[in-house]
Write a structure and sequence with these properties.
The chain has 11 helices and 15 strands. It is α/β, with parallel strands linked by helices. Strand 2 and strand 3 form a beta hairpin. Helix 8 runs parallel beside helix 10. The N and C termini lie far apart (55 Å). The N terminus is likely disordered.
Length: 369
């Protein structure tokens, strides 16, 4: 600021000539910045998973509205007891090669997801999210290199363009070891002309908990092409009834992610199904089953104001149940929150029995008028 007693000594024309253009530029820049339009939710690049349990329905969903999806991930691979990546027993070589080929023929990127579910060698059982088998791989250099080679080979065998690693529930002590694994896997994937994605559990800050604490987002983003963040399970079997996520909670996760990763590598994942809470247990529920249950029980569907999540309660044999699920309206509310962060892409978990109205709205928005 200039002192008032010095105003009289200023050559006003020269002063204005020198500083006015800069002021105008600053004002113009501020004006442009303050009016920059955010991406609309339907302008996001959409991807989705096809799971082994909804394989046929997932493929039909993609092919029925293929203009909606740019990336299709196949959730069909797990680990055996030795830590080797293998296909789920329900998926045949021929069916997966055919599906990958059909997706590629549509001009979409096909990805293989490998999860740390471990199939028993003889019994028809699966241990979900087995951290122990991953630990053995991460801390043995020879085993780690062999595991990476097998991941790359499995991805190439079925002509996928990308590999996605979904190793969940690892202890926080594995953080550095997993980052080393990701760096080595990224180098091998890129050398084979493959993209690499890591799918991680949500967090709003650094933490030491099982799952989120094991993932160093900063390190992972520097190595891989995509960090896919699960933006769901705000409410689960471990909590009272509530929505899978809210727009506010999603925004908090994105705010933290923005401090760790370039925006083009952040890919939020939203869940398109819901959950039923009963007196003794909980279970997942798909849109079509939730809608049918509400109609059958003559239940009134209400919505939580912040995120428009539909929910209802009903009684059966003196037991009370609460159902939260997702439909097109509630999913759009979440997508709008994601788009406000100028995120480029989003993933849907998963296709098959979700509300088809969401895809119809996206397709309609992209139809030339």
């Amino acid at each position: 600021m200039l002192a008032p007693e010095k105003y009289s000594s200023i050559d006003v024309p020269k002063f204005l000539a020198r500083f006015l253009p800069a002021w105008i530029s600053c004002l113009a820049l501020f004006s442009c910045a303050s009016t920059t339009a955010h991406r609309e939710w339907h302008e996001l690049s959409f991807g989705a998973w096809i799971t082994y349990w909804d394989f046929s329905a997932g493929m039909k969903s993609v092919e029925a509205s293929h203009a909606v999806f740019d990336d299709v991930f196949f959730f069909v691979a797990q680990l055996d007891s030795g830590g080797n990546p293998v296909l789920h027993r329900s998926v045949t070589d021929a069916s997966l090669r055919d599906a990958s080929s059909r997706i590629s023929a549509l001009g979409k990127r096909a990805w293989l997801t490998v999860v740390n579910d471990v199939a028993a060698a003889e019994a028809n059982t699966i241990t979900l999210k087995d951290a122990g088998v991953v630990n053995q791989i991460l801390h043995d250099e020879e085993a780690r290199r062999a595991h990476i080679d097998k991941l790359i080979q499995l991805t190439r065998d079925y002509a996928f363009s990308g590999l996605d690693i979904d190793y969940e529930n690892l202890p926080a002590s594995e953080r550095d070891a997993f980052s080393v694994f990701a760096e080595e896997l990224a180098a091998a994937a890129h050398a084979s002309k493959l993209r690499l994605s890591i799918t991680v559990q949500p967090k709003k800050r650094e933490m030491n908990s099982i799952g989120p604490g094991a993932m160093d987002w900063l390190a992972l983003c520097s190595a891989t092409d995509r960090l896919q963040i699960m933006m769901y399970n705000l409410h689960s079997a471990k909590t009272p009834p509530g929505p899978m996520a809210t727009p506010e909670w999603i925004s908090e996760i994105q705010d933290f992610a923005a401090t760790q990763c370039p925006s083009e590598k952040i890919v939020p994942v939203i869940k398109v199904s819901g959950m039923v809470w009963g007196p003794d247990s909980t279970r997942g529920v798909q849109y079509e089953d939730a809608a049918a249950s509400a109609e059958r029980q003559l239940a009134k569907i209400e919505r939580d104001a912040p995120g428009q999540a539909p929910h209802f309660t009903f009684s059966d044999n003196d037991s009370h149940y609460t159902t939260y699920f997702e439909d097109a309206e509630s999913l759009v509310a979440k997508l709008e929150a994601i788009a406000r962060h100028n995120t480029a892409s989003v993933m849907l978990w998963s296709l098959g029995r979700h509300d088809p109205e969401l895809q119809r709205r996206v397709a309609l928005s992209r139809t030339p008028r």
